[in-house]
Every structure is written in structure tokens, then in C-alpha cells.
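Thanks for the sequence, V.! I ran ABC transporter substrate-binding protein right away. Repeating your input here for the record:
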Amino acid sequence: MRLLKHALAGAVLAATTALTAPAVAQDKLSLVVNVVQIFGTVDPAKITDYTEYMAAVNLYDGLTTVSSGGEVVPQLAESWEVSDDNQTYTFKLKQDATFQDGSPVEAKDVVYTLQRLLSLNEGPAYLFSDLVDPENVKALDDHTVEIRINRVYAPFISITPLILVVNSDVMKEQDGEWGEDYLTENSAGAGPYKLNGWTRGAEMIMQRYEDYHAGWARQRPIDELRFVVTRDEATVRALAQRGELGLSSQYQSTETYKAIEALDNYKLIEASTATGFYLKVNNQIAPTDDVHIRRAIAYALDYATIREVIYPGGEMKSVLSSLFSEAHLDELPSPEYSLEKAAEEVAKSKYAGDKPIKLDHAYVANTAFEEEIGLLFKSTLETIGFEVDLQPEPWNRITELATKVETTPNTAQVFYGPTYPSPDSVLFVQYHSRAAGTWSSMSWVEDPEIDAMIDKSRATVDEAARNAIYKDIQARLHENVAEIPLLTQLKRMAAHSCLQGYAEVPMQSWDYDFSRMWWACEG
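Predicted structure:
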């Protein structure tokens, strides 16, 4: 399968502050990594957002993983076979993989992991819940797992990295049927790092698992990860000025990036991604239930200022990044900023004559570039008869509002990138009615025709035919202005010049697998 060259997942933010120890301790290499959003959970059956996946990809390994080129490649499974009817997947596990307590990874652990995920029905379970019945996950022997799916689902292999395997023996010793309390504070995985300390809202510490099955072949592996939670950019700059910062978050201001890059021993990492920055537009509540109002908003956005001045990024014509080259609808026009056309669309709407037309607009609080975009949005829309109520909210509040159509704002600024390396991750997760009620689906598209096309794409094994359906979906979403893509994210991070090996990966936060990175300096 040919996939995109580069990608990302992403998502938006939240906040607090902390200081921590230097980047390099005398007896081990300890890397300080800045994040701006709190870790809500590290339970692999419950993770949902960018930061939680950043933790999970280091604590756990999946059946498969994803390369920087976009290919699904072996991880705990060394190979797999697919039946002629495309419904039975048989995975052969590596013989030498162990959990962080030294016990072997076996087929029973994969069975337990999937059955736990399906039973808890949280986090990534929505991808498997109507596709896999618990009794259809079987251990054929200690190192062979069979998964029988209920129907043909063409992208199935692309979601197998999310089967993050937990140690069933450890879990069965815990209280409760699925050991939920234990995984609130501990890790039980076969990943490169294990959880060693967690001050919620401030810092998370992970220690390297020296016997990690994939090995540590690079010059000097990172022995300890110290994730410091702070949105305060002065704190991030101070960490760099003292030489303590290993890697910044991707959500700093341009001024902060420039200031850190100018320091000795620091560099700026830049990478094109498949993450989109969207204006989510609630299709189900007034006044954004009217396509003409949605189209007016689209015309009233100053795209060039947003992506060239406020938050540098690439042009985005479709809801799907052009990095999914074979599935992208290239024929769509570039986004157009025209207040004249915006006013014409308002006049065509059922709300024409209502003065003012009231909108509420949400964005992540205490995030400078999002506030700037919100202010630009308000000032522009109010010149054509709207009254915009800006609602800066903590990220966890936005996710709460998104669970119900009536509490979801008219418009909201949201980053979304593929959580698995397939266009299906962008289209199903954001626009299918079965996926409604999350921050990623805040547009509440609820379109039976879109649902039917997405369902058809998922059952289409032929890649060319499936890509044609993806293009039809993009065309309808564009015509209905289901939501408004603002830009593709150009990911930027400030990093210590000694940190090497970072590569973009087309899966949410999989590029933060620190077993793929190393320290290239002495001391």
C-alpha cells in the first residue's frame, strides 16, 4: 500500500508550569521534553489525544508500528497473513520480545489487550468495537494470534499500531476485572520506556528499559525522559538558556523559536505534516446550520494572514492533506478570501436580515496564536453583520463541550492529524455519524450520504477504487462547507543540537518514540 510521505497527528493544548533537572545528569542521559497539555491518562485503552499518545508510544509497543515513510511495519508482530476473504488476520509474534518486568510477550497478551479494549470501550476502541467480537481474537499458540473481523475493512492493518499490548499476567493480579486503577499510575508494556514518576499537571518521568526487544543500537540512547508540562513560553526559553531543554513542544510562538534557535547548541526542527488546522463549524445549530452562513464564514477568513503571519503553515484546499497524494482531490480550488462574496452568501441565507447574526467561537485559552486568529476572525466577520462571542477555553473544557451537539460552539479552532496512517483516519473520525461526539468531530456533519461513502470506502479492498471514493467524499464536504480547513501544519520544535534521529511519522505522536532518537555529543 502506498501511503503519504509525511504526516502527523495533532491536536490542541492545555496548561500549567514546572521546572526540572538539567538535560544531562552525571550518571545517565536525562532529556527534558516540553509539553503544553497535561497527560490525562497513560492507559493504552483510554488514550485519546496528542499528549497521551506521546506517552503511550514510549511505554507500549503495538502489534505493528509506522515508519517515517508511512509504511506499517512489524513491531511485536514479526509478520502477518490475510485470508482470501480479507477478514482473518494471522500475526506471528517475535520470539524474543519481553515486557518491562522481563516476562515474554505472548499471544495471550494480545488477546487480553484487545478484549480489554473492547470491554472498556474507550480511547481507540471505536475503531474496533463494531469490527471485532471478543471471541474472535484467539491465541493459536504462544506466538500466533488470529483476529477475525466481522466484515471487510480495507484499512485494518493501518489501525493495528493502536493495539498497544499490555502484560496480561500483571494485569490479572490487580483489583478489578481489567486493572484500571493500576494503569492509572503504572505502565505494563513492552515499550522502550517505563513509567517512573508522575506529578499530574507538572511532570512525567520515564526510565529506559535496557532489554527492549528492538535494541539500542544508536550512539547514546536517552536513559530518562522528563516531560515538563508548561505553556509559559518564558519558562521554555529559560530552560533553553540554561541548556536544560532537550526538545520543545510544537506549539511555541515564532518569537520563542527564534530566540531559542539563536542560542548556542540549539536548532530548529521543521517538518511538513498531514495535520490540518481546521475551523470546526457546527452544522446542526443556528446559524451555522445554513450552508450559506458556512460559506460566508469561509469567504471571510484571511487565509494568507493566518498561515503566513500568525501561524506559518501550508495551503489546505481539502479536509485531507495533499500528502495523501493518491487520495487527495487536487481539483479543488484554493481557499478564497473575499468579503464581497461573504456578504453575498449571507444575503442568500435564511438568516438574512437578522442583525446581528450571533456566533460563538472557541479556541484554546492562553495560546497566543489561537487568540490572534480568534481576534482576526471576530474583526472580519463583524464587518459583514455578525456578532462574534469569543470563548477561550481550556482544552479539557473544549473536549467536554464537544460531546453534545447543543453545547458545541458554532465555530472552533482545532488541530487534527491522522491517528493511523490512512485517509480513513481523517474522514471517518471527523465526519462519520458513528464518530460524532468528540473534539475531532465538532462539525457534527451528520450526513447520510457522507456516512454511506465512508462505509463503502472501508469495504473497498482495491486501492485505486478506494481513493476514488475518498475524492468523492472530499468533493461533497467541500460543496457543503462541512468544515473549513485553514492550513496544513508546518511542525516546528526547538531542540538541543545533540539530539539526533527525529523523523516525522504519519501517526499521532509516533514521531515522539524516543527509542528512535539518540544523543550525539559527549557529556
